[in-house]
Amino acid sequence: MAPWIIDAAPNEATMGLVYKIYFFHMPSAWMFLVAALAAGVASMRFLFFKKATADGWALAAAELTVLFGAFTLVTGPLWARKAWGVWWQWDPRLTSSLVLFLMYVAYLLLRRYGGPGSDKLAAGMAIFSMFNVIFVYVSVNYWRTIHPPTSVVPTLPVEMGIPLWYCVIAFTLLFIVLLKMRARLEHQRARVEALYLAEES
Amino acid sequence: MRIVLLCACLLLAPVIAAAQPQPPKDFVAVDETLPGEQIPALPLIAGAYGFIWVVLLGYVWSIGRRLRTVEAELAELEARRRPPVGGAAGGR
Prior knowledge:
The complex is a heterodimer. By secondary structure, chain A is an all-alpha fold. Chain A has seven helices and no strands. In chain B, 70% of the residues lie in helices and 0% in strands. Chain B is built from three helices and no strands. The N and C termini of chain B lie far apart (128 Å).
């Protein structure tokens, strides 16, 4: 249904047709930030409240941060090429987003190759990285940047707002489903590991 | 003599600078755009949407595959730990 709703949306006056990337780019960017926050909160629960299952949720959310971060960082330059005439600009929003993405790539690499104890180290890293989300969000309002500010969303005309909010809801549901699937995988892996340990003892 | 030359240069500098052609202060609109400068939007949109769909489907497939493998391993381990049905009675 999304392609029809997006197709029915009018073109933007200065950017023309290419602004329609926004309908996937903006929800991806939101889920990128939400996933990073979820990974940070779950890591806090794991590290400070010793909730073993929270580690699975943190790992799932970190993987989704990288997934939605990749969506954001690929669709953004495709839009920028037409709207700004360049693929990339080292401005605060783009640079901080790239840094956040790389932090979670590092988190996943640490979990994959860090060996014993890497879960706690990675949890600390996710908590530290979570605070970059605030910086990414406010960067467009506090620094001079060519990226559209956050005030664009509430001021959108209705005919552009409907497809955008439709896509935001769709991406939120997608995020919840993927998070549950990925966390289930981690929890099942933890059960397998526990059974192997029980067999050995 | 050097001081006179220096003074003359300093006095003439603003006059020379003002005589230079100034760039336009506003953008000038043109009716035509050079064909070489046009960037088609459609391949960019197709690239953006295509990338998201391909990666998303690949990711869902990857989770499904990993989940099936782990659940099969889990079922096997649980079956190994469960005592065989009627095993004790059969042994007597």
